[in-house]
């Protein structure tokens, strides 16, 4: 399986643009999959530089209803008129973030895009194709990331703390190997892996995604929690690639614990698993 990072907060060189967002191109044996589309049309610009033809994408999976993962959706739908686009049924709800100046910013999607014929709304476990599925409905056994603070959603006319029911995770199984792809793990990477294990009876071989250990205000998750996460991830025996909302300093802490079992993906990077 070939994975190319189209959008991430950092880039491998000045030749690739970067932004606060995430987009991954995944080329499996039978299907070409895009996971998230970043905050803008940058995913398309970097795709061209990485020899990725967006019109050939079979499926787009958007992890959750925040602009930094779905802001490029309108651009994608203009470029690719055949791919099915899988979002959780709550992804188009109104989502907000409280900024440092106490301003309430809308961080959701253009609701008009929901009517596009390519959109497929999902919930819980949803099977996309043979060996490809998404899952949500995560049980909260461990605390969610502290950096979720200030992320809100609209419920029955009220603005309330987001429970991240709209967050879904991608699973690709191929040749006896399993890849789990997460967006921001707002529900907590440990909770997501525990849920995966409860469904599959095993851990994935590879995990790619952000772990949300850094807030937009620059506040890191508690060091004790990062250490605990690192030890837990080591116990899964999986290989991890992280990015985006994990944060560079939390990543360094995880790297010190996990060594070669974790690496960082920047825009422009290519890996084969």
From TrEMBL:
Transmembrane segments: none annotated. Residues 20-244 form the Metallo-beta-lactamase domain. CDD domains: DHPS-like_MBL-fold. Signal peptide: none annotated. PANTHER family: METALLO-BETA-LACTAMASE SUPERFAMILY PROTEIN (PTHR13754), METALLO-BETA-LACTAMASE SUPERFAMILY PROTEIN (AFU_ORTHOLOGUE AFUA_3G07630) (PTHR13754:SF13). This is Metal dependent hydrolase. It comes from the Bacteria.
């Amino acid at each position: 399986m070939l994975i190319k990072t189209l959008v991430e907060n950092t880039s491998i060189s000045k030749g690739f643009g970067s932004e606060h967002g995430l987009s991954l191109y995944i080329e499996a044996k039978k299907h070409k999959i895009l996971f998230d589309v970043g905050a803008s049309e940058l995913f398309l610009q970097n795709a061209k530089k990485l020899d990725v033809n967006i019109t050939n994408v079979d499926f787009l999976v958007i992890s959750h209803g925040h602009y930094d993962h779905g802001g490029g959706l309108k651009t994608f739908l203009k470029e690719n008129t055949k791919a099915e686009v899988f979002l959780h049924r709550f992804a188009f709800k109104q989502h907000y973030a409280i900024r440092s100046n106490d301003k309430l910013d809308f961080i959701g999607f253009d609701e008009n895009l929901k009517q596009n014929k390519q959109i497929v709304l999902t919930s819980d476990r949803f099977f996309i194709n043979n060996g490809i599925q998404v899952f949500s409905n995560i049980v909260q056994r461990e605390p969610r990331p502290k950096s979720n603070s200030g992320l809100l959603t609209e419920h029955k006319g009220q603005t309330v703390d987001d429970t991240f029911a709209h967050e879904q995770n991608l699973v690709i199984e191929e040749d006896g190997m399993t890849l789990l792809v997460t967006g921001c793990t707002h529900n907590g990477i440990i909770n997501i892996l525990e849920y995966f294990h409860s469904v599959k009876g095993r851990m994935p071989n590879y995990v790619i995604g952000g772990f949300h250990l850094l807030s937009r205000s620059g506040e890191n998750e508690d060091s004790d929690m990062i250490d605990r996460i690192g030890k837990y991830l080591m116990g899964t025996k999986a290989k991890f690639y992280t990015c985006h909302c994990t944060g560079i300093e939390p990543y360094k802490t995880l790297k010190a614990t996990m060594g070669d079992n974790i690496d960082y993906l920047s825009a422009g990077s290519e890996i084969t698993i």
